[in-house]
Fold this sequence. Notes:
Helix content: over 70%
Number of strands: 0
Distance between the termini: 10 Å
Low-confidence stretches: none
Radius of gyration: 27 Å
Structural class: mainly alpha
Number of helices: 6
Strand content: under 5%
Amino acid sequence: MIQAFGIWVAAGLTLCIFSFLYGDNPFYKFAEHLYVGYSAGYWLIYTWHFTIKLMVIQPIAEKQPGSLMLIIPLIFGFLMLTRWFPRIAWLSRWSIAFTVGIGAGLVLTGAIHGYILPQVKATLLPLWTGKWITSVNNFIIVAGVLTTLIYFYFSKEHKGAIGKTAKIGIMFIMVAFGASFGYTVMARISLLIGRFEFLKEAILKLAHFF
């Protein structure tokens, strides 16, 4: 009975979400609010147990080596909560500045080593490899990168050779946007198929149960 009830609830919530295709309605709002509330509660418990308790409170309570240094981030965490009190809300700026600084540094180095440098390395390709298919593919990649960079070169007006090259770059950009959009649609369709498969299996399980 418990398993059947869980299947009914999951199937009902799935249909409530799909009801948005007809229009905004109370069933969709209920499922949406339930999902948001459940997610917020889950991450609250997850953060407390796996971050605050296991990584801060427990090491300090057990007096592990170097645990006293954890008091510093704990203080910054409490300062972040001062945003709720207008008189001392300015103290939270220290925590926010510290977090934004670390985040900017990590994103900058991560983007350089994980995105920019691999992209540059992937563009440095030989135009002739002995195989005409591979050579044509490499030429298209190099030409696409160069023409796209020229399109984003705004220091000079796009006229003449630069303008024609920039138009070719626009074509490559549109192809890239189209491929990205197609990939997104394909991913969403996969999720939709997954939910339909769930509903089908749920109906079969309930029929078998009864």
